[in-house]
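okkk here we go again. third time trying to get the adenosine-5'-triphosphate bound version out, last two times i messed up the smiles copy paste (missing a bracket lol). double checked this time i swear
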Amino acid sequence: MTRAQLATVKIVAVLALAAAPFLLSPFSITLLNYVGIYSLVAVGLVLLTGIVGIISFGQAAFIGIAAYATAWVSAINGQSPWLGLVLAIVLTCTVAAVLGLATLRLQGHFLSLSTIAWGLSIGFLFGNIDGLGGFNGLSNIPPISIGSYALSEGWQIYYLIWAFVVAVLILLNNLLNSRLGRAMRTMRGGKTLVESLGVSAYWVNLTAFVIAAFLAALSGWLYAHLSRFISPTPFEPLAGIEYLMMAMIGGATSLLGGIVGAAVIIFLKNAVQDYLPVIAKGASGQLEIVVFASIFILFLQRARQGIVPFLSRFLPQPQPKRPEPAPPLPLRNQPAPGEVLLQVEGAERRFGGLIAVNKVSFEVRAGEILGLIGPNGAGKSTMFNLLTGALACNSGKIVFAGRSIERLSQAKIARAGIARTFQHVKLRPRMTLLDNVLLGTYTRTKAGLISGALRLERQEEASARAEAMRQLERIGLGDHPFELAGNLPLGNQRLLEIARALAADPLLLVLDEPAAGLRRNEKQKLAELLANLRREHVTILLVEHDMEFVMNLVDRIVVMDFGTKLCEGDPAAIRNDARVQEAYLGSTV
Ligand SMILES: Nc1ncnc2c1ncn2[C@@H]1O[C@H](COP(=O)(O)OP(=O)(O)OP(=O)(O)O)[C@@H](O)[C@H]1O
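finally!!
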């Protein structure tokens, strides 16, 4: 699909939305109003759950905070609903930020369980705070007015609701294609990957959490002024589960999925309410829940990815544009060749009684390739993890570019200029080659939430895309920048990881067993790339088990065995060292 065709589809969709009140019955418009309101929550959950990977059952509580805030402002204190909107957003986002700060360091299901805990307790509060109407709720909530024009009819508020939905879609779509959005889309690749790019996983989680709460707040505000009455029931965790169902049924990885999911659940609910009493006289209330549970189980078994991702496979995709030349991103000040860049002094790491790295010292000088080799279990990976911050040293010092890094987080070490690759490749398989490499530019760019959502960072984004394209071409994969990374063979995936690391313009490139699992011709291609980088004086620390692969590539070698440094020297000296030959099971190397 060309960009012009895509624009036409979007214009037709907006015109259809605008024409709906003239064509549909008031009841259908009421249903569409609820679809819009719930879409906002579901789209927030797409971001939070589908994209960032945090399963939240607690969104209904955020909707409730906003709904009660605006009801308190407008129904109890007689102020404008717009003032209610301000309080709703401030209060909801503040509560979300506090809850996020307290819980987002929890991992996996513990985090999800915590959302049930606070969802329950906030839901319980609404009925028990004096002055908020108790379990009977609050009525007489006024309609939203624009000037003196009150949006009291369904079709009037319809336009406001859908204007919000369309604006949210546009802003979130922009965000997901920006620097921060790419970091969010990487969160499901695991904390180690994200932090290795210089991204703080915690802050990205918190940002997504507050954005989802913000969208729930918008929804709660609209809900209160549409229904003009609120009570605690719709804000209990049971409703939170329904929002999660909307996001999952629509397709939790697609923003449109949030809208489609909300529509499917609301129309289905309506149909079930219409037809179930006819089929099951008397017991329809209880059966409704059973019917929904059955549909959801069927869905989980048959179409887990959701409706929109499933259908989009059959639809023509928009043609992406190749990056055009743009001014370069800022470069780091590289140290002078020969200067000591990394100094490891007496690094030690124990696992219980086992000393995996035992007082190891060595240094890497700018412009050289140093090989760190050793047989299985020698402690190379542990040493690698100490350098990149994935593990902390028990004792010893690691100084990088004049700065102690042994206590720094992975993200801070990445920002200091160490870029790494992984022994078990960590790419985002459903992202394009270009987007994967773009992730590497995170530490060299600045755009945040607002500039990403409003596309204020076009210049920087153009420069980052041009840089990513340059790195793709540098590794020989520039022909198909929009191929999905997961489609590449392992050898090319490793090259892609190197391109991503190079896009950070690192002071030091650290490669973790890059030749592991590669075929002969893939190894050759990798060796050629590393030889080219060597000619360009890129400083590289190569941690590798395969000694033959290392020999022709590196300037110096450090050999580890049983956690200690066995010896150090140039490749020829190492090849002839009897201790090294013995360590490698007596084989001649
Ligand atoms: N998280 C851990 N907990 C306990 N022991 C560990 C841990 N990580 C590594 N070890 C142990 O530390 C020693 C060094 O392991 P390490 O993975 O660093 O060696 P390696 O040289 O990278 O080996 P390989 O080439 O097989 O990857 C091994 O005995 C290993 O079992």
